[in-house]
Amino acid sequence: MPIVCATGCGRGIKTMFKRSALPVLTVLGVIIALWYAACVPMNSAWTAQQLARSGATMTVTETVGAAWSQDRPRLPAPHQVAVELWDTVVMKKITSKRSLVYHGWITLSATLLGFAIGTSLGILLAVGIVHSRAMDMSVMPWAIVSQTIPIIAIAPMIIVVLYSIGVQGMIPKAIISAYLSFFPVVVGMAKGLRSPDAMQLDLLRTYYASDAQGFWKLRLPASMPYLFASLKIAVAASLVGAIVGELPTGAVRGLGARLLAGSYYGQTVQIWSALFAAAILAACLVAIIGLIEKVALRRMGMRQ
Amino acid sequence: MNGLVFLRVVSNLVISAQNLDLTFQTNDGPVHALKDVSLKIGKGEFVSFIGPSGCGKTTFLRCIAGLEQPTGGQISVNGMTPEEARKARAYGYVFQAAGLYPWRTIGGNIKLPLEIMGFSKAEQAARVARVMELVDLSGFEKKFPWQLSGGMQQRASIARALAFDADILLMDEPFGALDEIVRDHLNEQLLALWARTGKTIGFVTHSIPEAVYLSTKIVVMSPRPGRITDVIESTLPKERPLDIRESKEFIEIAHRVRDGLRAGHQDDV
To answer: Which residues of B70-84 are buried (b: 16+ CB within 10 A; e: fewer)?
Structure first.
């Protein structure tokens, strides 16, 4: 039976890919076309200024060409971002200060540490909340309030406070990252731990099972699908937290620093390539969690 | 003679309820779920509880299991309070849904109570094999619940309730969600299982044929407040092929059950 399914599913994915390749590529094509189109009005003002100064004229084709190839465009064209990404990711040595891999790693390490702290904290809080009504009443409101404060407002304070007690570098960034990522884990995990229905709990009562047995044998495994769903949100939030944590110090390292430096010096191509690097990194992190989820749930025997 | 019969009944008494009352406090005011329920169940009996929704049949079963606390009256299970009996793991309970853990194999699910009760690994394996054979599921130990039909899942949940060898089996509409044909088949198997194991079975149902076919004693209940309106001792033989349901005796008992249900409803109006 599992063999039949495995081949069946494989075939399903293949036909699905064939069917969805066209729409996916179409949407991608439309986005890129819109982007190129938007570059023309965004960047032509500068070209017009130059022309007015020199008294020269340009054909429409030349104007468009100029809009797509400026050094400091308001909106860089897709190929400019792609070239910058290629240069800073592949062509630079990864130890170079100009390598996006170098900056990406700085941010990623803070992200992973923050994600680990946030996830552990989230799971612990969820366990407490599910097992103690007092904790539910006292902790949950604060967890919710914590997420209503803009992270950009609280991040500098965290960095300043930690700096004053001698903590700096990766740790403050990881804490900001954890601050953002613990919340989805608390909410998802609490929901997951509460997901067994009254009948399932009654069944354990008929066995005279202890609370601990109920936790390990029923609540924890039942919460796994919920946990993984939250982890996907949490890992993306962790990355945002780490990047935001890099901004207030005027940091010199990390994707956040690249964003900040790019905006100081009007290096829009650099900003956009850092943005894309962050987006790609986030997508990879979410995909990795998704993969772990698939393997874990399959090994647990839960049908996907 | 009467005294002798009485003595025999007392020595074999497994479940005894005296003037049991249970009132739930709800937002819409108190609900009288059980009123003045008295019943004695002897060892090895197969007792069905039948009645419309809200007649307290499930509530009564849950009282026996110690899952609900009666607000009045006495109830004892194996001479203990239901709470003590639950602690002593005196009964296996089968719910309407199989409620198997999707992350455990069928064998793993049946092992669950054994793990909780601290049986040794070897003992667990032996017991799982034995009860799976008992419910005719041998060979499915490594399958996951989603790979089994609804009827097979329910059989696995019965095996799970049997695994730790409790003398009492409490079943709350175990076949209510299954189709007629599967249900007939499982009823037949349940009778065979009961004959082989000699367990005392409490069985909640709302199907008259099911109650008459399975039981040695049929308890007819009626709602608002939940109470017993009739207790029928079945005169059917212990050996019951499916076609016994066309016999005159069977139809007579079914009639009496139906009358009891109807009487309960007339009280209501």
So the answer is: beebebbbbeeebee
**Is the residue at A93 inside a domain?**
no
Residue of B nearest to A202 (CA): B67
* CB-based contact B93 A202, cutoff 8 Å: yes
Calculate the average pLDDT of chain A. Answer: 87
Indicate the helix (H) or strand (E) that contains B14: strand B13-26
Contact B116 A303 (CB under 8 A): no
Chain A residues near any Cβ of chain B (below 8 Å): 1, 199-200, 202-209, 213, 217-218, 221-222, 224, 300-303
pLDDT 10s digits, A271-289:
999 999 999 999 999 999 9
Same domain membership, residue A167 and residue A271: yes
- Residue to test with chain A: of B103, B171, B204, most A Cβ within 10 A: B103
Point out the domain boundary residue: A28, A53, A72: A72
> What residues contact B154, with CB distance under 8 A and at least 6 apart?
B94, B98, B174, B175, B178, B186
Residue B138 is which amino acid? Answer: S
- Cα(A16)–Cα(A6) distance, rounded to whole angstroms? 15
Residue A225 and residue A108 share a domain: yes
Count of structural domains within chain A: 2
Q: Report yes or no on A18 lying in a domain.
A: yes
Is the distance from CB of A148 to CB of A137 less than 8 angstroms?
no
pLDDT at A233 over 80: yes
Range of the domain at A157: 100-299
Distance from CA of B104 to the nearest CA of A (A): 7
Contact at CB, B144 and A203, closer than 8 angstroms: no
Inside any domain, residue A28: yes
The answer as to whether A91 is a domain residue is no
Give me the mean pLDDT over the B165-172 stretch.
91
Q: How much is the pLDDT for B136? A: 87
Measured CA to CA in angstroms, residue A201 lies from A113, A115, A215, B57, B82 at distances of 36, 32, 10, 20, 18
A196 and A52 in a common domain: no
- Are A235 and A156 members of one domain? yes
Residues A24 and A162 in one domain: no
pLDDT digits (tens, 9 = 90+) for B46-102: 999 998 888 889 999 999 999 999 998 899 998 899 999 999 888 999 998 999 999
CB contact under 8 A, A199 and B99: yes
Q: Give yes or no: residues A67 and A121 share one domain.
A: no
Predicted pLDDT of residue A304: 52
Asked if the interface predicted TM-score (ipTM) of this complex is over 0.95, the answer is no
CATH number for position A175: 1.10.3720.10
What confidence tier does B236 reach under pLDDT thresholds 50, 70, 90? confident
Distance from CA of B168 to the nearest CA of A (A): 12
